[in-house]
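User: Study the chain.
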Amino acid sequence: MTAGAARRRKPCDTMQAKLVPGVGEIPAQAWNALLADEYPFVRHEFLQLLEDTGCVGAEQGWQPAHVVVEDERGTLVGAAPAYLKYHSFGEFVFDWAWADAYERAGGRYYPKLLNAVPFTPAAGPRLLARDGPAAAAVAQAIRALTDDLGLSSAHALFLRSEEEAACYAAQGFLERRDCQYQWFNAGYESFDGFLGALSAAKRKKIRRERRRVREAGIRLEAVPGEQIEDALWDQIYGFYANTYHERGQDPYLTPSFFPRLARAMPGRVVVFVARDTSGPVAAALTLRDSQTLYGRHWGCLADYHSLHFEACYYQGIEYCIRHGLRRFDAGVQGEHKLSRGFVPVATRSAHWVADERFRSAVEDFLRRERALVDRRIEAQQARTPYKQALEQP
């Protein structure tokens, strides 16, 4: 897609919508003024760094094509982080089977338009807007621009609010659901207080896992990102990259992204660094706002018994209790989180499929999939380790 095409305009009621090929074309203050809360991943600084450090771009298959909506005076009233995607890697809402079926039928699935945060399966705002009508205009623009550019589909991933889901539904987008596991703070005064809310068997299991890490001579520390020196960042990146290399993949993020993020967003990055007598051996990188801790990236030198659980789960839970955070979103996957105090939470995405026949097939699939997901969540809610039902704030 050319830069000229990226700037094609599409009327949206009394507003004008367009795609811009880089978030840097939008003033940071104007973009961030659209944010209703502190969710870190759609801030201008975060998205700009992804572009500036080479994590996203046309060569990576993540071509920035952010949707912006302006009023008749040219004032920014709505926006959405968006990308032309030439594959489906790094999304965590899997549509590979859709792409395969569409292309076997003679269609061209890629590029598609994706309203999401790259490599970030953490639910949050996706339609950034000054008010409800502006949010609706952004959703309308995403569909209109998708059709105008002749793309196969548009996808909005990890929606958090009912209002955003309604905006997409009004444009004919199809809803998809999945399940994550999150931890909620019920006002615990300590980690032992949290353990006291669990069944005896689960308490014993968690204490045993934590003891194994200590007996291995490993100690962990929560380090604010802005206090980490370059040499340690190099080690942390090596741990992170090793996680991908073990699966035969290249890491999504580049070496300069982490230290620059910590400098650009002070107070938001926290790294749980694990050390033995030789030095750092593992690290779990998180971001936070005033309510939530978001577990994002993990890696280690070798396979240490229970260290993943300690660094990625128990350290985060302790941090939330100590700092009064209400929620710990530790990322995708992992029914094993259930026995460690995390509970199932429904996630959702929205999908516009341009081809009517293909859309009908996808709609039928999603209807059946939603029923399965709902039954799965209901069954797992009955398996949580809590002695009493946990209310999610």
